[in-house]
Amino acid sequence: MFAFIVRRVIAGVIMLIVMSLVTFLLFFASPVDPAQFACGKNCSPAIKEQTRKALGYQKPAVEQWKDFMVGIFKGRDYPDDPALRKAAPQLVAHCPAPCFGYSVLNSKTVNEEIKRAFPITLSLAVFALILWLLGGVALGCIAALTKGSFIDRGLVGISLVLYAFPTFFIGLILLKFVSIKWGLWDKPEYTSIADGGVFSWLSNLFLPAVTLAVVFMAAYVRMTRAFVLEAMSEDYIRTANAKGLSKGRVLVKHTLRGALTPIVTMAGLDFAGLLAGAIITEYVFNFNGLGKLVVDANRTYDLPTIIGTVVLAATFVIVANIVVDLLYAVIDPRVRVA
To answer: What's the pTM value of the predicted model, to 2 decimals?
Structure first.
């Protein structure tokens, strides 16, 4: 088990390094001047040159990547040019590790922007994950156990319809009718636990989380049904039934354990995607999370923020893959020898 964990972690670290290098090459190896996309749309030549030196964009792409990686582990000072730091020491901004860059447009480190936005996205992603896993797996099991019945066909049919709806449509329907027109739920405005308490935090997250959960739940109902039916056809399930075990025990202890492996893969990657930013949902409900941060950065040509959030988002996905691999080993011991 230890060797399996070490292999997966080493592979994940290598992927993180390669990912960060590829990201920098994509942004800085192109003929487009990166300084133009770091100081905003209305950027004069003088400000552009100052921005280039302040962020170190005059260096080759590989050297910029090395500076970025050093900042991740040790932190970094801005402006990047030592001459500028010496000329105006009062303007030096320190970006502590892990440093994801400095936004010239916002006059603050990307870390500060991520620190403000990440708790919102994390809260929304965790709430939505709990809702769609509980609902999707439970309804998928019911559909599998009642295969061919009216219940099975109804659940699968409803899930197909809901899965066809785009996220923004579901969000707008909930916001316009449930919250604004009918007044069944207060208009969501993110409030942290420290500011409003647990109840206010959950109530404001409910509608955005349901928006995300409905779409994912529809997919998980169909996938869970398929995997449970496949597991129920295995020999060890027939043996458990022949021993006279209750249906509930066979389902929970044997069937679900065999069906959980692909579901864990889906859940891990979907959750990582939400951590990278539930862009549409955050924009519909005006939640200032990572998704909205990325969209706003693209609109204002805030390149350091874009790079920092892209690297962070890719890190979420890679780490999620590592966690999923480790969960595989817990759920199915046969994976450990792979």
So the answer is: 0.86
